[in-house]
User: Which sequence fits this backbone?
């Protein structure tokens, strides 16, 4: 068994930022374990630009953004292993890792940061009837095939789901010479950014069909067509509206799920809303010394927020290594009135980071609302929001004087209210 | 009056553009000066950043990602992308390398955005 102070599982933006910040907080005994053969995580396949406006004040592509953090980790000489897959983590912080280079290795760490990112919801996770022929890909798999392996996945494409990955892939396939016949969205709105609807669909006259879904996939060996239909308010297909679209490829962009197999091994409490862990304001889970950050905690749309959150996790993990757990009196954060979740889910009574950033998602598109934090019915924070949407994460920063108003036993609620 | 969404950053500001007088285009709704420039370009000569991939010989992965060094004419996107089809870089390639110089006489280059080591 190899002893380490801090082990970080995952070398994507979250793991890299956590490692950098742990180092800068004084920790030198750090190891990053990464399954793939490169550091950088999923951003290596997100070749479009638009990353890093918050963090670096310039617009970078995914690989460039990832490389900034890779360089910072290399400059600090932080140890990392590639091709190293962690297969289990226990609640007494024993990690089992397999790699071609070292075989099976067991580590014990004083603190562990889970930064394993998320995975795409596969076809099995949604219900589409029809044949199991070739030509159905998740959008992220297609992104990797086209952008890293140089393999073109199809010529005539229908995309189900208008989140950012679906939109970006519509343009990407168009650039590679494919005809994208439609982007089909179940909801009456897109969870993608407006700029992506403009520059990925409108620029190329790709139709975006709201309140529609794919009800059938036809074809023998390869997809030959898909049948789409409008849905009613209960999201049930109206079969009289069914129409067939000829295509050889269907891309599914139907959501991301935190990668939490490892957390389950370690008895980390998971939220059934986010699919990620339940953490406190130091990013620590219910298992002492196990932290989470990035997409494994909750799915982010901007990597800048991943980096920021992960730097906090890195710093707090070092605090824990040096001082042990300092807090056990938590105040749980509740949500209501259209707020679907908030992270962290609980806060210690003494927040020693000075201020506290709360991240949340709403359940629907709302106009002219206020994001409000109430303590025992009294508003301690309010922020006007002309529009909020499920696709865009909202943030609230509570200052020290506002946090002082929170004490044990009180009810703290994050909600949306009319202006 | 035209309505458009600024694509320069994820804020996606809703812009109103009055281009009745082409010599004095008025823009409102932008949060920062980039929005004004975007709207003016959009009604006169729309431009886009373009990102794609180029084949790499002997690399640890098959493709290196590239971007234009500046936005290029929207109407020339596909013609520009065609230029990339014929070329093959040789590993190792580094972020910042020029993959294709002076796209269609625009003075804009395709720049590599990813390090690809030799196999
Ligand atoms: C297909 C796809 C496209 C996306 N496109 C965008 C986009 O365009 N813009 C944007 O801002 N965000 C995008 N995102 C979100 C993006 O994932 C985040 O912004 C950011 O990359 C999250 O960082 P992370 O480090 O949490 O996760 P990741 O980047 O996913 O990194 C997690 C790392 O952990 C490793 N890992 C996982 N399990 C193990 C294990 N058991 N052992 C060892 N290593 C392990 C993985 O190999 C991976 O390298 C996209 C996400 C996906 C899935
Ligand atoms: S106007 Fe400025 S802030 Fe608004 S979307 Fe454009 S670049 Fe972003």
Assistant:
């Amino acid at each position: 068994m190899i002893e380490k102070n801090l082990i970080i599982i995952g070398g994507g933006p979250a793991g890299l930022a956590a490692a950098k910040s742990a180092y800068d907080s004084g920790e030198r005994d750090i190891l990053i374990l990464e399954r793939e053969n490169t550091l950088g995580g999923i951003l290596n396949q997100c070749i479009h630009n638009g990353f890093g406006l918050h963090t670096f004040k310039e617009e970078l592509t995914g690989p460039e953004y990832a490389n900034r953090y890779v360089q910072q980790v290399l400059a600090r000489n932080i140890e990392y292993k590639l091709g190293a897959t962690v297969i289990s983590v226990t609640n007494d912080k024993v990690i089992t890792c397999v790699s071609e280079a070292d075989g099976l290795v067991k580590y014990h760490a004083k603190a562990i940061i889970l930064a394993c990112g998320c995975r795409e919801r596969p076809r099995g996770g949604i219900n589409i009837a029809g044949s199991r022929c070739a030509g159905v890909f998740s959008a992220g798999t297609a992104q990797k095939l086209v952008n890293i392996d140089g393999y073109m996945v199809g010529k005539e494409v229908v995309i189900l789901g208008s989140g950012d990955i679906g939109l970006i892939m519509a343009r990407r396939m168009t650039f590679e010479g494919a005809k994208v016949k439609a982007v089909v969205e179940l909801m009456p709105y897109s969870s993608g950014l407006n700029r992506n609807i403009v520059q990925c669909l409108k620029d190329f006259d790709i139709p975006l069909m709201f309140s529609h879904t794919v009800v059938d996939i036809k074809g023998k060996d390869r997809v030959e067509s898909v049948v789409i239909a409008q849905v009613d308010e209960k999201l049930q297909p109206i079969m009289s509206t069914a129409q067939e679209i000829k295509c050889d490829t269907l891309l599914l962009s139907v959501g991301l799920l935190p990668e939490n197999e490892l957390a389950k091994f370690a008895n980390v409490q998971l939220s059934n809303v986010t699919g990620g862990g339940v953490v406190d304001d130091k990013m620590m889970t219910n298992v002492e010394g196990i932290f989470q950050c990035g997409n494994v905690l909750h799915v982010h749309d901007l990597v800048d927020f991943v980096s920021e959150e992960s730097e906090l996790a890195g710093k707090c993990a070092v605090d824990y290594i040096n001082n042990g757990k300092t807090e056990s009196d938590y105040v749980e954060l509740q949500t209501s009135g259209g707020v679907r979740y908030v992270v962290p889910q609980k806060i210690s009574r003494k927040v020693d980071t000075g201020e506290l950033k709360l991240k949340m998602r709403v359940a629907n598109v709302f106009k002219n609302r206020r994001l409000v934090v109430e303590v025992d019915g009294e508003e301690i924070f309010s922020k006007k929001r002309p529009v909020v949407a499920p696709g865009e994460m909202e943030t609230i920063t509570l200052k020290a004087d506002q946090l002082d108003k929170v004490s044990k036993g009180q009810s703290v609620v994050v909600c949306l209210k009319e202006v | 009056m035209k309505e458009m969404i600024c694509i320069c950053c994820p804020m996606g500001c809703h812009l109103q553009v009055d281009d009745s007088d082409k010599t004095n285009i008025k823009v409102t709704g932008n949060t920062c000066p980039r929005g004004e420039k975007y709207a003016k370009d959009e009604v006169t000569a729309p431009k886009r950043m373009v990102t794609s991939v180029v084949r790499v010989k002997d690399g640890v992965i098959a493709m290196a990602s590239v971007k234009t060094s500046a936005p290029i004419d929207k109407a020339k996107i596909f013609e520009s992308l065609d230029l990339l089809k014929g070329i093959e870089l040789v590993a190792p390639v580094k972020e910042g390398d020029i993959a294709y110089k002076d796209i269609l006489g625009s003075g804009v280059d395709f720049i590599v955005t990813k390090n690809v080591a030799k196999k």
Notes: Residues A 9-15, 33-36, 41-43, 46, 51, 85-86, 115-118, 120, 140, 143, 164-165, 168, 256, 259, 262, 294-296, 300-303, 306 surround flavin-adenine dinucleotide (ligand 1) (CB under 6 Å). The two ends of chain A are 58 Å apart (CA to CA).
